[in-house]
Amino acid sequence: MSAIALLTLVSAPGCGRGAAPPADVEAAGGGRDKAASSAPTPKPLTLNYPKNAALVAGSEVEATAEGLPPNRTISLLWGTVKGGWVVQGHEFRGKKYTFAARTLGTVDVDHDGRVQARFTIPEDYGGVHEVMLSADGVTLAQGGVEISPTFEISPTSGPIGTPIEIRVKGLGWRTLESTWVVNWNNQTIGWVSAADTRGTAVARFRATGPTGAHQVKVYTGYMGQPYLNHEQAPNAHLPRPQFVFHVTPGRAVSPSYAEPYPKQLIPVDDDGGGASLQISPTQGPVLTAAVLTGQGFPANAPLTVVWETQAGNRVSGNGFAAQEEELARVMTEVDGSLKLPLKIPDDLGGPHSITVRSGDTILSQAHFVVETSIVSIFPTSGPAGTPVSIHLKGVGWTDYDNIYVATYDNAYMGYACGFNSQGDVVINFTAAGPPGTHLIDLYPSIYQGPDGGQQLYRLPQLTYADDHPGNRIPALRFAFEVTAVVTSQAR
Fold first, then answer.
1. 333 and 414 co-located in one domain
2. Pick from 107, 124, 147: which residue ends a domain?
3. Whole-model pTM?
4. Which domain range does residue 474 map to?
5. Beta strand ranges found along 210-297 (DSSP E)
6. Which of 473, 266, 481 is nearest to 374 (CA)?
7. In whole angstroms, what is the distance from residue 60 CA to residue 49 CA?
8. Is it the case that residue 158 has pLDDT exceeding 80?
């Protein structure tokens, strides 16, 4: 066993002077031992583990300390942070963390004031963590360890279209440790994060290209681009894993599809006024056939059903605002109930309120979440140079669901917005590449953030299913078959 020194909680600088990472994503506030100012200086807590071993979740560590109050049972604490993505209404506000501590267990101090204990590194954010011995809110001894991230890829072979996962653990919360980037054959697919999920997430993409070996490399890159001279970086000690995926003959490509849509969170409606309103289902694509039911309304009363949305954009200078549309008029039953079949409007993605009103008075409301749906890709085959069009409905309008970002054969192609066209999105591009199957994937990302300059916004977020701020929305998958050019032979 070999001891490690006490590590200090600091943020590394950026690439050269004046390039420090944005301050709004660093830890906020305290959570540190408030009694420390009047308490004795903590004793060193020596933390031992096998020499040259990387500490990861599940690693065993021995903790020893001397000079403690004898014959006591005290707490062993793990220093960490709490927090993650910050979303305020329709706005994405970056990340924020505060220091916190969790109990790993208790240890006994012997009659000579010594402690010798073992503990297991918990699954948590990577980077530096304090380990403390504490009694009655006072830190008696402290040390530190640095947790390394781990990366696993699965599977490692398969035909074109095979879903690939890179499972990550121990991604840090600090700026230079929090964002990673996946390259496929030296082309950037997208970025990887675990800001909301305590350092653990899964990056998802698909195999593409000719039969044979394809290089997959994971780089750090807090701005969303790979940092190539990482050996000279302030965080050069972090791993940069490299994998090889073998594309095998055949195809695993399905027709165009949206991945399964997660159950969306909807606001909890207050029925304090006496009337209650429900809609079934609570989410689906535009033009979904739904049924609105309610109870506790005035008997035999004519009421109005109103759909609320947003209209406008973020770039014209004219802004945007809430907009209402009357869906129907309904007469309640003698018992004050109502039942109304309705069709969900062709509108923006995300949650929409449906209110029942008497005149201008809102009696009750429910919410429906519009899912993004695929209308078509056309055509689906043709020679290189063929114009191709992808048509979507129900793209959202908030900072965090306003865009989809496209890759073509795992290389960044561009992004598309849905707000100005009320969720109706048409993407036009030209087919390219040699004859064979080519993949077009649309990933969720972030339209804009609090600083307006982070380059990782509007790039594909590969950990969208686990760690996307705000709504959890799926990736959309397409394929195009490039055919050989047919030439007529001279007679």
1. no
2. 147
3. 0.88
4. 372-483
5. 212-220, 242-251, 257-258, 276-280, 283-284, 289-295
6. 473
7. 7
8. yes
